């Protein structure tokens, strides 16, 4: 008896240790696919052993069983050594810890283990009671040989069902659903069957409950547990697998058995009562499994600095944030004020909370709120607005309040303004404008006047009254003259408002990077955005890019953004997705159809790039590198599309954005872990995950099945050899980290204006005026400063500060037989408008080399 018990216990521990070795061979999505199939092999082995024993023992007797078992053990040990050598030589995603991680548990790991221990205890309790009731029902129904036959058929059928599930359904389930979903399957199905037994305690019901528990415990619960333990360091992970299954689970089963033993035979006298009690425990088990799965998600994302997804409404703000945003809405800096006003407009703010700030001590704050209400009057605040205007003594705030009430159709602000009209020109103008709007007289003249002094108010007049812009040629010319060569805010606003030539002025201003043009886009109202959406397609890529980025500050730009996220140009679509995320998080509703279309386009573009990668053997080295850069950007675009989907559904998109950054980074361990995080976030998006996983794997030679030209015409031309002349400059520009991630077309545009220069002597002297930067393409340069000198090798960059600030040269630079690419300030400025990451990268570069040499730089 002692020997049998010892062998049984040792075999269980050995089985767990062997399973740990199997689990160490795979990680991430590979584990989700392969672990259930490995479990199917174990189940298959059990089937073979059972059926084989049934055939051999009657013929050779029981004495042959130990010999067969010993032979199988020797084979297992030999395979184990071979597997260890393979793991040591080749490694595996789950076999080693990510670089930089420690072999110790953090707080998140401990919380996860506590949750898994509770789940194991409750699961064992339910399984023990189910086993007891099943055994009782079985013995009551069968006896003798019938009982033995029933048991063999039951376990045979159970293993058959388990084998099919592990080989087919479970692997697909685990790669298409997040862990909270898969962890819930076992307890929920058991609860369902057990409810049937509690209602009608029949043999079929208890047999179904027992079958569901046995099959799903091995098919989903055990595999889910493997996945949930994956964030742990390798050593504790293997140890806790043994402890949870070899100690905690048996402890729960023993505790349940002792309780049943204490109750005695009376426990089986009322099967419905016992089942109902166990169902209550199973419900707690299900809740615990969900909490543990959420802890797993947090522990999985923590190493990447990603917080777990939340379903809190990001559009609701607390009173402290409301206070801060309201005060910033009156900030002297126009950009800060505009951003705060946009945040307030998007947020779900209770009217009474906002009304409290209409009587703020700072007149700039009151004026900012009145200006906001002038654009979008809130009916619930009209009474508060009247009261605030009645006591307002600041001329600017009073003028804006009068306009806000007039737009709402309320004339109560006019009488208050007449009393101060003689003392303030600004108030007098507001009274005149409000009277024109309310009476309907001289509206066209008021609009014409507002075009020159207050274009935003003029646009509001046009929208509020439904007035059609005048078509008189002299009026059009006056507006164009007012716009001036710099394309001011007035010209841009009224180009959108369909006055004069609708898009000429705006497009030129956007392409030139005029701040007023971007401000005009940020100030769009809903009709203006709709009007621009109808005519945006003919604009250049630069103009559409500028619009996509400027709309992040708009409060009513959702329809226009919804169009841009499906833009034909990947650069525009990528920029628009970032803006769409900002708008969705701010509370603006984006239509579902364009989001789904943008996601489908991003997925199709990534597939086309991967198909091209697999068939690009004839491409030049430069073209293949540009293909790799473009493919990486496609992965980022797909991740941003997923983030926009999450935000539109009311979920926190921050984890998607963070995972996207790590996924397109350079550290392989971070990229694989980011894919695991996306697996949890993108439940139900198996096609997206499969394509991203394909990208992470090496290319495989295959004929292309998708047309790259439909998604990236520039790259298709480069691969076809049509842009050979630009390839050498592209290769040189890609060498510095500053340009490593810039989109190919944007970099090609910069390459077209960059010039090459041989350097044989002095490139520039210390203190010289500078407005150009240089990239070393051949040889090396020596930078000499009073405190020493440094050598700049090929691929290095110098003159970064000059293109930003025109600052004097900080060193004398000389060379012999070197070559550099010259990029002047204008070329860099144009490139940075198309690719803002250039400015961010340049700032990081400057900080990196300035800080060690400048004690005052913190």
**Tally of separate helices:** 39
**Rounded radius of gyration (Å):** 35 Å
Q: How many β-strands, per DSSP? A: 6
Mean pLDDT score, rounded? 78
Report the helical percentage: 55-70%
Description:
The structure is a single chain. The radius of gyration is 35 Å and the shape is globular. Mean pLDDT is 78; it is low at 309-315, 467-501 and 854-858. The protein has 858 residues and is mainly α. Helix content is 69%, strand content 5%. 43% of the residues are buried. Strands 1, 2, 3, 4, 5 and 6 form a six-stranded antiparallel β-sheet that branches. A hairpin with a 2-residue loop joins strand 3 (781-785) and strand 4 (788-792).
Characteristics:
858 residues; disordered C terminus
Lay out the secondary structure:
Blueprint: H1 2-23, H2 28-60, H3 64-90, H4 107-141, H5 144-176, H6 179-199, H7 203-228, H8 234-263, H9 266-269, H10 271-301, H11 319-328, H12 334-346, H13 351-355, H14 363-375, H15 382-390, H16 395-407, H17 412-421, H18 425-439, H19 443-453, H20 455-465, H21 473-483, H22 489-496, H23 504-511, H24 515-522, H25 526-535, H26 541-550, H27 558-564, H28 570-586, H29 592-614, H30 621-648, H31 654-663, H32 668-681, H33 686-696, H34 713-719, H35 727-734, H36 744-753, E1 755-764, E2 772-778, E3 781-785, E4 788-792, E5 797-798, H37 800-805, E6 812-824, H38 825-834, H39 837-850
Antiparallel strand pairs: 1-6, 2-5, 2-6, 3-4, 3-6
Helix pairs in contact: 1-8, 2-5, 2-7, 4-7, 4-8, 4-10, 5-7, 6-7, 6-10, 11-12, 14-16, 15-16, 16-17, 16-18, 17-18, 19-20, 21-22, 22-23, 22-24, 23-26, 25-27, 26-28, 27-28, 28-30, 29-30, 29-33, 30-31, 31-32, 32-33, 36-38
């Amino acid at each position: 008896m002692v020997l049998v018990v010892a062998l049984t216990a040792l075999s269980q521990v050995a089985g767990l240790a062997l399973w740990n070795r199997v689990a160490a061979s795979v990680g991430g999505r590979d584990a989700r696919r392969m672990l259930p199939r490995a479990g199917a092999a174990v189940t298959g082995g059990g089937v073979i052993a059972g059926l084989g024993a049934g055939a051999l023992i009657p013929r050779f007797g029981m004495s042959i069983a130990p010999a067969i078992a010993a032979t199988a053990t020797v084979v297992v040990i030999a395979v184990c050594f071979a597997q260890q050598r393979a793991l040591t030589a080749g490694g595996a995603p789950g076999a080693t810890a990510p670089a930089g991680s420690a072999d110790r548990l953090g707080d998140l790991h401990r919380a996860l283990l506590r949750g898994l221990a509770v789940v194991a205890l409750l699961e064992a309790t339910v399984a023990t009671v189910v086993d007891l009731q099943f055994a009782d029902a079985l013995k009551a129904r069968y006896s003798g040989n019938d009982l033995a036959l029933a048991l063999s058929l039951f376990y045979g059928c159970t293993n058959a069902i388990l084998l099919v599930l592990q080989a087919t359904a479970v692997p697909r389930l685990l790669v298409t659903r997040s862990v909270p979903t898969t962890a819930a399957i076992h307890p929920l199905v058991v609860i369902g069957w057990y409810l049937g037994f509690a209602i009608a305690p029949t043999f079929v019901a208890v047999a179904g409950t027992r079958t569901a528990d046995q099959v799903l415990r091995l098919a989903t619960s055990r595999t889910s547990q493997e996945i949930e333990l994956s964030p742990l360091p390798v050593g504790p992970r293997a140890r806790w697998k043994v402890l949870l299954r070899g100690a905690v689970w048996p402890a729960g089963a023993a505790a349940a058995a002792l309780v049943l033993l204490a109750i005695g035979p009376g426990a089986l006298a009322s099967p419905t009562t016992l089942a109902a009690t166990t169902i209550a425990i199973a419900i707690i088990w299900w809740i615990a499994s969900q909490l543990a799965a959420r802890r797993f998600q947090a522990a999985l994302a923590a190493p990447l600095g990603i917080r777990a997804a939340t379903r809190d409404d990001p559009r609701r703000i607390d009173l402290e944030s409301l206070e801060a945003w309201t005060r910033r809405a009156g900030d002297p800096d126009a950009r800060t004020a505009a951003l705060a006003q946009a945040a307030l407009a998007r947020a779900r703010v209770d009217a009474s909370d906002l009304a409290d700030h209409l009587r703020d001590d700072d007149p700039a704050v009151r004026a900012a709120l009145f200006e906001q209400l002038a654009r979008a009057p809130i009916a619930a605040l009209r009474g508060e607005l009247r009261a605030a205007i009645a006591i307002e003594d600041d001329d600017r705030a009073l003028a804006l309040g009068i306009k806000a009430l007039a737009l709402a159709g309320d004339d109560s602000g006019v009488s208050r303004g007449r009393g101060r009209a003689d003392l303030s020109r600004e108030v007098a103008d507001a009274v005149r404008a409000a009277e024109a709007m309310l009476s309907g007289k001289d509206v066209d003249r008021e609009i014409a006047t507002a075009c020159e002094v207050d274009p935003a108010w003029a646009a509001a007049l046009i929208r509020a009254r439904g007035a059609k812009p005048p078509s008189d040629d002299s009026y059009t010319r006056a507006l164009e003259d007012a716009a001036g060569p710099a394309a001011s805010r007035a010209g841009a606003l009224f180009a959108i408002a369909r006055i004069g030539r609708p898009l000429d002025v705006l497009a030129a201003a956007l392409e030139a990077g005029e701040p007023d043009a971007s401000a005009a886009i940020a100030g769009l109202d809903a009709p203006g955005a709709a009007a621009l959406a109808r005519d945006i397609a003919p604009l250049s890529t630069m103009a559409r890019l500028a619009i996509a980025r400027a709309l992040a500050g708009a409060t009513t730009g959702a329809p226009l953004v919804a169009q841009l996220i499906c833009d034909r140009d990947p650069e525009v679509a990528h920029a628009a997705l970032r803006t769409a995320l900002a708008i969705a998080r701010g509370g603006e509703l984006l239509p579902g159809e364009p989001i789904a279309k943008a996601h489908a386009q991003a997925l199709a573009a990534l597939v086309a790039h991967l198909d091209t990668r697999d068939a690009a053997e004839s491409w030049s080295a430069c073209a293949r590198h540009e293909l790799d850069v473009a493919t990486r950007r496609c992965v980022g675009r797909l991740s941003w599309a997923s983030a926009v989907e999450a935000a539109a559904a009311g979920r926190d998109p921050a984890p998607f954005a963070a995972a996207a950054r790590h996924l397109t980074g350079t550290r392989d361990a971070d990229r694989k872990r980011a894919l695991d995080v996306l697996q949890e976030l993108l439940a139900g998006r198996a096609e997206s995950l499969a394509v991203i996983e394909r990208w992470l794997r090496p290319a495989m030679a295959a004929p292309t099945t998708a047309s790259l030209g439909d998604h990236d015409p520039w790259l298709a031309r480069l691969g076809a050899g049509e842009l050979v002349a630009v390839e050498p400059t592209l290769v040189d520009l890609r060498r510095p980290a500053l340009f490593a991630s810039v989109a190919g077309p944007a970099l090609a545009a910069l390459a077209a204006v960059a010039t090459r220069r041989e350097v044989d002597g002095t490139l520039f002297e210390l203190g010289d005026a500078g407005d150009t930067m240089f990239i070393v393409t051949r040889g090396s340069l020596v930078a000499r400063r009073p405190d020493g000198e440094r050598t700049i090798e090929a691929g290095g960059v110098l003159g970064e500060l000059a293109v930003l600030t025109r600052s004097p040269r900080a060193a004398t630079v000389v060379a012999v037989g070197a070559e550099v690419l010259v990029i002047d300030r204008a070329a860099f400025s144009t490139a940075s408008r198309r690719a803002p990451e250039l400015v961010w990268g340049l700032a990081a570069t400057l900080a990196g080399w300035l800080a060690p040499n400048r004690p005052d730089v913190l």
